[in-house]
């Protein structure tokens, strides 16, 4: 540290402390060293929705498809991420914070917000915030402590990382975030295991299973990810996943089990990948009347036509026995079963640097023997479950069509 004559004179008469000055500079250097390894990233996600001929008061209730997004322009969500990733040290440490702003942030409801209210405090949410730790066990046992994304599912919250812009019904019956501790271990290049314990199914941060029993009742989960090795020919790099979560859904006041399996597979045709996923969600009657279930099956196909141009297709079939594909006063659809079919086609052309640009057409069809008359179409984010198209709200039509343009700037 360089000192001028005035500082040295003050030090000589005891008015300043030389070690204290040196210590302050060392502390600042430590702060800057820590900040230098922190990265800032994120995106701005916007869209334009058009629902030809069906109105917009009641729409299919897959995740983040609120009625007020229809027939107009939308700022879906802004995400800011601060992260210090783990390095190669045996006792490495890091962190990650994901902040969300906008309507999709409120719908995620990690702070117990119900839909968009226009209240800035409710439209700003924490998606993830955890401390990342490594312990020198075998190849390295990593832990996340805090709030982190769920470990199951083919699709994720960040729609730019998904094949399609809109979410599937499978995603819509999965949990989204948890508050707890998550461990992961990479056995080898082909196999990774995850296991964790959380307060509840989430998504509300710090929410406990109380009532009825917060002290000992927690949510448990485990998952495995398998990757085909390099010597498997055209299948090299293909992935398969499986996992389960069991615990208490505090928002719905029932015991809940979620099961998931899925895969993404390369094909002999260059640039063509296929995938499939299956989700099961079941509840028991210990804290709610009766047992219920919902299932969602999806198939995916993606083709890269050029460096910038690609096409993505998804087909879905979801079915339930009672209320798990609906919310509101008519969640049981007149007491009958409910089925949903959906087809989605997405054309992506990355014309601008750092911009994901997509045109998507989606068709949803509600089937089943339930009486849909008088069904209310409010989107209830306390239960992150899909709502089938409402024939009453769509002039008796069981079909809903969406044409959407999605633009995401990634930084």
Q: Can you offer a commentary on this structure?
A:
The two termini are 37 Å apart. The chain has a domain at 51-76 and 156-180 and 187-410: Porin, CATH 2.40.160. Strands 1-2-3-4-5-6-7-8-9-10-11-12-13-14-15-16 form a 16-stranded antiparallel β-barrel. It has helices spanning 5-12, 18-36, 103-108, 169-172; strands spanning 39-50, 72-84, 93-101, 124-135, 141-149, 177-186, 191-198, 219-227, 239-249, 254-266, 272-284, 292-304, 309-320, 338-349, 355-368, 399-410. It is mainly beta and 411 residues long. It is globular.
Which tags fit this structure?
16 strands, 16-stranded antiparallel beta barrel, mainly beta, 411 residues
Give a concise summary.
The chain is mainly beta and 411 residues long. It has four helices and 16 strands.
CATH topology of one domain: Porin
The rounded distance between the terminal residues' Cα atoms is: 37 Å
* Structural class assignment: mainly beta
Overall residue-averaged pLDDT value? 81
Task: Give the tally of β-strands.
Answer: 16
What is the strand and helix layout of this fold?
Blueprint lengths: L4 H8 L5 H19 L2 E12 L21 E13 L8 E9 L1 H6 L15 E12 L5 E9 L19 H4 L4 E10 L4 E8 L20 E9 L11 E11 L4 E13 L5 E13 L7 E13 L4 E12 L17 E12 L5 E14 L30 E12 L1
Antiparallel strand pairs: 1-2, 1-16, 2-3, 3-4, 4-5, 5-6, 6-7, 7-8, 8-9, 9-10, 10-11, 11-12, 12-13, 13-14, 14-15, 15-16
């Amino acid at each position: 540290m360089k000192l001028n004559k005035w500082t040295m004179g003050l030090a000589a008469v005891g008015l300043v402390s030389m070690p204290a000055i040196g210590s302050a500079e060392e502390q600042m250097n430590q702060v800057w060293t820590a900040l230098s390894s922190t990265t800032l990233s994120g995106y701005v996600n916007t869209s334009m929705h058009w629902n030809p001929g069906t109105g917009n008061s009641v729409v299919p209730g897959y995740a983040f498809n609120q009625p007020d997004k229809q027939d107009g322009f939308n700022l879906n969500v802004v995400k800011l991420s601060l992260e210090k990733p783990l390095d190669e040290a045996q006792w490495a440490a890091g962190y990650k914070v994901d902040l969300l702003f906008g309507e999709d942030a409120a719908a995620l409801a990690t702070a117990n917000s119900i839909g968009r209210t226009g209240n800035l405090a409710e439209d700003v949410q924490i998606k993830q915030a955890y401390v990342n730790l490594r312990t020198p066990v075998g190849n390295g046992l990593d832990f996340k402590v805090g709030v982190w994304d769920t470990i199951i599912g083919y699709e994720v919250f960040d729609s730019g990382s998904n094949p399609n812009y809109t979410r599937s019904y499978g995603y819509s019956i999965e949990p989204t975030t948890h508050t707890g501790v998550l461990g992961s271990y990479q056995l080898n290049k082909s196999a990774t295991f995850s296991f964790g314990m959380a307060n509840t199914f989430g998504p509300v941060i710090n929410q406990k299973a109380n009532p009825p029993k917060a002290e000992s009742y927690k949510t448990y989960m485990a998952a495995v990810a398998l990757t085909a090795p390099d010597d498997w020919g055209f299948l090299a790099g293909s992935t398969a996943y499986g996992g389960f979560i069991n615990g208490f859904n505090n928002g719905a006041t029932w015991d809940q089990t979620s099961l998931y399996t899925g895969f993404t597979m390369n094909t002999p045709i260059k640039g063509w990948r296929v995938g499939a996923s299956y989700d099961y969600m079941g509840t028991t009657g210990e804290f709610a009347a009766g047992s219920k279930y919902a299932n969602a099956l999806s198939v995916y196909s993606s083709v890269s036509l050029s460096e910038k141009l690609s096409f993505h297709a998804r087909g879905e079939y979801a079915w339930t026995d009672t209320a798990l594909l609906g919310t509101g006063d008519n969640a049981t659809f007149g007491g009958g079963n409910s089925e949903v079919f959906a087809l989605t086609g997405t054309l992506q052309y990355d014309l601008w640097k750092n911009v994901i640009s997509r045109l998507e057409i989606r068709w949803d069809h509600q089937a089943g023997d339930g009486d849909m008359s008088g069904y209310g179409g409010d989107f209830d984010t306390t239960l992150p479950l899909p709502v089938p198209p409402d024939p009453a709200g769509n002039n008796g039509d069981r079909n809903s069509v969406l044409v959407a343009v999605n633009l995401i700037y990634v930084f």
